[in-house]
Amino acid sequence: xxxxxxxxxxxxxxxxxxxxxxxxxxxxxxxxxxxxxxxxxxxxxxxxxxxxxxxxxxxxxxxxxxxxxxxxxxxxxxxxxxxxxxxxxxxxxxxxxxx
Length: 99
Description:
Mean pLDDT: 87
Shape: elongated
CATH class: Mainly Beta
Radius of gyration: 19 Å
Strand order of the largest sheet: 1-2-5
Helix content: 10-25%
Structural class: alpha+beta
CATH topology: Immunoglobulin-like
Order of helices and strands: HEEEEEE
Number of domains: 1
Largest sheet: 3 strands, antiparallel
Low-confidence stretches: none
């Protein structure tokens, strides 16, 4: 009885603590002027809602399956790849991102 209870408890713990994350690739680069730029590639077969933020400016967009976003660049050369913040999740969970 104790073994069955322990097994059930472990099963519930692991079932509720697992999280599914989207598979994306974050690509950094620089323009010809040396300004940092970034794009996100969707590597799933489901549309994603995403944002890219830098220095308080946030851009919301969505990415179709297996496609990349356009390049987003910083305002000046004082920023680098560490200043960008990114986030993506399934578009079906965030209707405000739908076109």
